[in-house]
Design a protein that fits this description.
This protein is of the alpha+beta class. The chain contains seven helices and six strands; from the N terminus they run ββααββαααααββ. Helices cover about 65% and strands about 15% of the residues. The protein is elongated.
Length: about 230
């Protein structure tokens, strides 16, 4: 379910997935006005324009005191942090939503890259085979093409290995994010925080925190998700 639309925008020199800050503000049901809220959060957490977000003025009929409204597109990292610091159920829901969006985008990117490499490889192999058929009468030329095909095969194997490594890295990054939350739980316990206080800070349920504290959890190596027992 799409809670808040995620679209690619140019921030700095990169196209990255972003969310509309005004739509996030509405979803979080923040009591203060949008302009007050976003400016306070930017100053409080030192977010940087053209790195964490971009802003623009809406020149439509949406006017405030005769002036165009100002909107913001924010990175998913900034969106997760803004959601977390609200310390509400809506905030926790939004933070988990953005984490899931990041995971899905990682998987989609790898799938597209795999498909593109496979399509390109198949085209090259077809071309090489057709060329070999037309030069079969000349043994030396045929051997040259076979060598070329072998080299292409080695390159494809290398590309396949690289894609597998990138998939493993994406899974590792997600697992590291989960393990970071686990480490944070133990750090906050050592600092004397209660389960309720830790829940507010990390957006985890008190049930999950209790299981983590008592080492009654396990990490799925394939998905990177925690299960409690």
């Amino acid at each position: 379910m799409e809670l808040i639309p995620v679209t690619n925008r140019l921030i700095g020199n990169r196209q990255i997935p972003t969310a509309n800050a005004r739509e996030l503000h509405a979803f979080l049901q923040v009591k203060s006005k949008f302009a007050e809220w976003i400016n306070r959060r930017i100053n409080e957490y030192k977010f940087i324009e053209n790195q964490d977000f971009i802003s623009f003025s809406e020149n439509s009929e949406k006017l405030q005191n005769g002036r165009p409204t100002k909107d913001y597109f924010i990175s998913l990292n900034m969106a997760k942090e803004l959601a977390m610091v609200e310390r509400t159920d809506k905030g926790r829901q939004a933070r988990q939503y953005f984490i899931d969006c990041e995971r899905q985008l990682h998987e989609l990117t790898i799938a597209h890259q795999t498909k593109a490499v496979s399509k390109n490889a198949n085209w090259h192999l077809t071309q090489l085979i057709n060329t070999l058929k037309t030069t079969v009468h000349n043994q030396q030329k045929a051997m040259d093409k076979i060598v070329s095909l072998h080299e292409q095969s080695l390159q494809l194997q290398a590309l396949s290995l690289e894609l597998l490594q990138r998939q493993a890295l994406a899974k590792k990054s997600y697992r590291q994010a989960v393990l970071y939350d686990v480490d944070c739980v133990f750090d906050l316990v050592e600092q004397g925080y209660t389960n309720a206080q830790i829940s507010e800070k990390l957006g985890l349920s008190t049930y999950a925190i209790s299981r983590i504290k008592n080492h009654r959890y396990s990490l799925d190596n394939d998905t990177g998700r925690l299960s409690y027992h």
